[in-house]
Amino acid sequence: MSPIRKLAGYTVLAKIGEGAKSDIYAVQDSRSKQVWALKHVLFENEKDDRFLEQAQREYTIGSKLSHPAIRRIKKMVKQRKMFKVQSVALVMELVDANTLDQQLPRSYEGAIDIFRQVSEALSHMHERGYVHADMKPTNVLITEAGEVKVIDLGQACPVGTVKKRIQGTPGYMAPEQAAREAIDERTDIFNLGAMMYWVLTREVIPTAMPPQGGDGPLASTRDIDEVARATPPHEVNAMVPEGLSDLVMQCVEKDRKDRPESMLSVLHRLDSLSRDMAERGR
User: Is residue 267 helix, strand or coil?
Assistant: First the structure.
């Protein structure tokens, strides 16, 4: 098969990645010579409709966000045939970076700085009325300078959404996602806490998930109640600061009412931990 040379009017330079039913390319605008990332989702059968819908939702939500720690989405190009959308292309900011699981922080100070930047990005989303709903290490890009870019808004939704399908990633999804209840800001707090837990321990927390995955039946309240409580990070790794460990455990409380009240609250806690560590390092 010959390589793709043009997509959505852009010159394809290289394929740089792939996701669920999508391919990511580095492309160039022939007029401005600006280089972008382009996510291409192609309709092949009826099961692909939801991936096309996710890409369109990613653009709708992404176009309403403006934060340096969230990858910018420039525009969407749809191709139709007989009034049916056949493909969606998202033209996005090209970031020279690795995902968090590939470029782990080298110190706890560095980890807290990454967590702070992600919290700032999610707080911005919440202020605009949206939740990310899929925060995990592979959805965070880290540049060599340590700057964060939150990516993949395919599962993002307005605050209060009750999804038709169970969506989330085992080890990171909140109990209310498994039970298909309303998604809100504290869902992102759980997802972030689960991500922080993995970064600090290299282990995923035990979470409820239907055996058949996202298309299976709802997880029952009993299933969720029986999920074992995660071991606090500082007990898994004695080097983890206890204050940071306590924050993580509060973020991953099964009952959302027991989690921090807002992402801004999480950010303030991280700021305080960062200052404390800086003071002790002097």
Answer: helix
**Quick one: CATH architecture of 98-276?**
Orthogonal Bundle (1.10)
Rounded to whole angstroms, the Cα distance separating 212 from 203 reads 22
β-bridge partners, 41: 22, 88
Higher pLDDT, 164 or 161: 161
Q: Are 68 and 82 in contact (CB under 8 A)?
A: no
Secondary-structure class of domain 8-92 per CATH = alpha beta
Residue identified by tokens 């071991």 is 231
The mean of the pLDDT values for the chain is 90
Residues annotated as part of the active site? 134
Neighbours of 207 (CB within 10 A): 24
**Is the distance from CB of 26 to CB of 34 less than 8 angstroms?**
no
Q: At what angle do helices 108-127 and 242-251 cross, to 10 degrees?
A: 30
